[in-house]
Amino acid sequence: MSLTVLEQIYHTPGPGQVERLNKGINAAVFRGLALAMGLPVKVLANSIGLSERTIRNRTKGHAGSRAGAQQSLLTGDETERSYRAYRVFRRAKEVLGSEQAAREWLRTEQRALGNKTPLSMLVRDVGATAVVNILGAIEDGGYL
């Protein structure tokens, strides 16, 4: 599934973002995000503090079915966590120049993160903020 909905949220001003995140997004977007990030659903789910079972149950039985219009939505919290991963991945692509470079960087231990991977930091918003700050330093030519 396309990441268009996440990109639309990205371009929405603050109050609208909160409203849109609270409404939730189609659970199939999560699988699309995992695919774009080059990760198994389980790995992405674990990295943002969600259960693979939760994601599987939200999308179960809906792929290609006539009930497509009634596919399950992620909760506001699940949507926010998914959006957090999207936001960081998007920023990594901007700074590093390609999806492949972003994928590799997110899975590589970084000294500036105490030798943790950026992906492992996404479980909390403060971790995602730290990752985005490091990407900003990289973009500015800072040594990390």
Primary descriptors:
144 residues; mainly alpha; 8 helices; 60% helix; 0% strand; globular
Summarize the structure.
The protein is mainly alpha-helical and 144 residues long.
Would you write up a description of this structure?
The chain is an all-alpha fold and 144 residues long. The chain is 60% helix and 0% strand. The protein is built from eight helices and no strands. It has helices at residues 4-10, 14-23, 28-37, 41-47, 52-59, 76-96, 99-106, 125-139. Helix 6 packs across helix 7 and helix 6 packs parallel to helix 8. The longest helix is centred in the middle third of the chain and has 21 residues, at 76-96. The chain is globular, with a radius of gyration of 15 Å.
Average pLDDT taken over every residue = 91
- Flag low-confidence runs: 65-69
Name the structural class. Answer: mainly alpha
Radius of gyration: 15 Å
Order of helices and strands: HHHHHHHH
Fraction in beta strands: under 5%
How helical, in percent, are the residues? Answer: 55-70%
Shape: globular
Distance between the termini: 36 Å
SS summary, helix count: 8
**In this structure, how is the largest beta sheet organized?**
none
Please give the number of β-strands.
0
Topology:
Elements: H1 4-10, H2 14-23, H3 28-37, H4 41-47, H5 52-59, H6 76-96, H7 99-106, H8 125-139
Helix pairs in contact: 6-7, 6-8
